[in-house]
Amino acid sequence: MPSADPVTTPRLDQSVEERPAGRGSPHPVSWWIWAIGIAVATTRSPGIVSTVILLAALVAVVWLCHEHSAFSRAFPAYLALATAVVIVRVVFYVLVGIKTGGDVLVPLPRIPLPDWAGGIALLGPVTASGLLAAASAGLALAALLVCFGSAVALTNPQRTLRSLPASLHLLGTSAVIAMTLAPQLVESWQRVRRAQALRGRSLRGRRAVAATTLPVLEDALERSIALAASMDSRGYARVHKGSSRTVLALMLGALVGAALGTYALLDGSGPRWLAFPLLAAGATAAITGSIIASRRIATTTYRPDTWGARESLIAGCGVAVAVLAVAVPAILPPPLRGAAADVGGWSLTFIVCGALAIVPALVAVRR
Amino acid sequence: MIRFDAVTFRYSEASTPVLDNASLSIPEGELCLVVGATGSGKSTVLRLVNGLAPHFTGGHLTGTVTVDGLDTRTHPPRDLAGTVGVVGQDPLAGFVTERVEDELAYSMEQLGVPAPTMRQRVEEVIDLLGLHRLRHRALTTLSAGEQQRVAIGSALTAGPRVLVLDEPTSALDPHAAEEVLAALLRLVHDLGVTVLLAEHRLERVIQYADSVLRLDTEGALEYGTPAVVLASSPIAPPIVELGRLDGWEPLPLSIRDARRVAGPLRERLRSAQSSVPSGAVAPAAGSIALTARGLRVRYGRMTAIDGLDLDLRAGELTALMGRNGSGKSSLLWALQGTGTRSDGTVRVVGRHGMAGGSSAEHGSGLPGGPGAVVGSDPASGVDPATLAPDAAIRHIVLVPHAPADLLYLESVGAECREADRAAGALPGTASATLERLWPGVPEAAHPRDLSEGQRLALVLALQLAGAPGVVLLDEPTRGLDYEAKRRLGALLAEVTASGGAVLLSSHDVEFVAGTADRVVVLSDGEIITDGPVSDVLTASPGFAPQVARILRPLPFLTVDGVRRAIAGTL
């Protein structure tokens, strides 16, 4: 059906088509390390100003270095989502938040709820410090979202999946197919709706849904069978010899280690001494499992992405930002930590972090 | 290279086998054409070659199929990937990646070919198939012909000894089809690849074939040189039918060979022509059924139809031709009223000279059209876009290129009753039409279980229930065999005979030559040529049917025309 489709749906990737496939743009993994580093830093941010500095660095780098793809065009959506998170957090504070003492900004009445509500009270006096704390907490979550959005905008997820180790190759292929499925469903839904209008009766309600769903699903089924047949005849999964229990156990172990280790590392109140051993053990298990699994698969990669000095710099900046944000407050004596007690959250460390975070823009600006 | 040894294959749910005790051996470097009516099992034979049948499709296989010494019983399709390359009917459905270059490399990645070899092979295939301009493009942005070439390229990079193609040119215009076939021919000649090709439109490929494999519906097959197999085949391209008519021996298969033996026939026809005014009788120009003025269709910045004027007359069958993406579908949808129309007017004149039932819903005057208006005044017509859907189907209907999209009920009978209700026709109208168009379609059958031809007949019967004055069809001949096309031609003739105007888009030159009265050629949204079928199709070498090429400069288009002319002289 490719020939005669009069519905020219705006193609998501139209502007990419003449451009060499990511040639010249840095290795996607370097951008992910950079974004994760900044995400770690934001969790240690002392307040609004520090978080905003990091956010500004993220936005600046995305604006300067993004690729022309549907994913980079989704970045504003991430920003909107982040803003919504902050607003929701503040609204919740005003509505049901626990109001502590301080300078009262808006003296709202406090409406106690019945006992079954667990002692929650509606409204109450809104204080400046409470408002700031709520905004700061919302911003922390928003910053994580923006970190993720930046990584997605700066890399093409399909390229990222290609850089996965061979053991995850089958997973990567499935993800790529899943990504192309949604636009295809939308397209065939539009086609069927248009065609059925030709029958001379506008269907409504349940019948309309049934009438369109059936052909669309049939279409999707036929496509997936055709795709499966095509992949089978092109050698997909040819040298994959099934999964082994060792690999599964190692991968599960790695996951648990990574989860616990990350929790211990990021949560300032957790048992810090546990963090690094757990993370290291998790990483070892992951690498071992991956190596064992990769040996069983003999696929190769066409034009693998290369890792050079530029990639090291980008990833290094991310790591440096994370290390600075985590280590400096821990090492420095309290008086030198900057104005940590300040509600605004000024911090010399985070100004340095912001400057470091923006460095990749110097080496990766798109032409 | 390919050996079938006493092969019997049956799908689990079917009672009759697709192949019954078939044995054959196709040598290396041969281009073998697989022909047969719809449902004779062409696709199944192709699937047997790379093991998709029975490994993927299921079914019961006895006997052995070996390809390059590998038994498909012990080698599933993925193990044969380096030996057999497969190109499906809809290349887009088989693409795994997003970009041309990645798609070309996909098979090799799966086979574990080292990176330097991969780059080298991708370059070779890009040069061989002329894909260098496309290499960085996204697959969805390619035209149908380009997609097909990429699909062939991606099957080729794995270095297969055998290439299997299922109707690779069915969606392509004549020029794009020739490009694809030229690419295939280079593979056969330069690389010694064995090619197995299934195709309905024999006229496109027969001249390139080294051998023909003909399948019967009873599971028997015949394999041999094209001239021998086709001499007795019920399925034959016009060139073979002409040869049989005039008793040419051996049968010529290329236009060049046919012209060399057609001298005496041309002489006879020339004298026949001078004595009897033969050829198609100019159809009596009916009254105007549809008129479009200054029609423009834009999608964003892209202009699909650019200021087009068109009149359709009652009782006339007009064919809309033009390369892929020239705006044929956009035009049909815009005329019908459902599709985008950015500018211009469309008026449908009611069937019996009435201004289409209630004339209250239109009042705007029409700017006087440039063409001479015959019959009733088109300004009195009605704009189909302003009509409610149930009123519109009594004036103008469209059969889209995927007719199955229109069907949503459980059985043929239910669909017919629904159509009668929607069009306000007498109960039984649609099913009576269907019975005439394609006798023997069971009422209780599920529409999805019908063959392509039956389904098209059903949709046409449903759409004709309201006795519309204008019938539009988008590529109705795709995937139809010669028999189904003959029936379609007959039923369209019936529509025009009862005073309907038909506009159909098609790439099928032979079908248009046999059925149309008038041809409109579209390019980039503009009408390039508009004239009687005999003038347009003989003028352009790209669109000329085989008979016209052989008998040029005589104005014959079809074997039937020649037959009539000869009969006239006797």
UniProtKB/TrEMBL annotation, chain A:
Task: Give its localization.
Answer: Membrane
Q: Which domain of life is it from?
A: Bacteria
Q: Is NAD among the key words of this record? A: no
Topology relative to the lipid bilayer, per the entry, is:
Multi-pass membrane protein
Spans through the membrane:
32-65, 77-96, 139-156, 247-266, 272-293, 313-332, 344-365
Q: Sorted alphabetically, which Pfam families does this protein's record hold?
A: CbiQ (PF02361)
**InterPro entries given for it?**
ABC/ECF_trnsptr_transmembrane
Per UniProt, the keywords (alphabetical) are: Membrane, Transmembrane, Transmembrane helix
The reply to whether Iron figures as a keyword in the UniProt entry is: no
* Chief location bin: membrane
Q: Where is this region: Disordered?
A: 1-26
The name under which this protein is listed is: CbiQ family ECF transporter T component
Lineage, please?
Bacteria, Bacillati, Actinomycetota, Actinomycetes, Micrococcales
TrEMBL record, chain B:
Q: Which residues form the ABC transporter domain?
A: 2-242, 290-549
Pfam families xref list: AAA_21 (PF13304), ABC_tran (PF00005)
Q: Which Gene3D superfamilies does the record associate with it?
A: P-loop containing nucleotide triphosphate hydrolases
Annotated segments matching region Disordered: 353-381
What are the alphabetically sorted keywords of the record?
A: ATP-binding, Nucleotide-binding, Transport
Q: Record's superkingdom?
A: Bacteria
Q: Which GO molecular function entries does the Swiss-Prot or TrEMBL record give?
A: ATP binding
The record's listing under InterPro entries reads: AAA+_ATPase, ABC_transporter-like_ATP-bd, ABC_transporter-like_CS, ABC_transpr_CbiO/EcfA_su, ATPase_AAA_core, ECF_ABC_transporter_ATP-bd, P-loop_NTPase
Keyword presence, DNA-binding: no
> In the UniProt record, does the keyword Cytoplasm occur?
no
Name the family the entry cites.
Belongs to the ABC transporter superfamily.
* UniProt-recorded name of the protein: ABC transporter ATP-binding protein
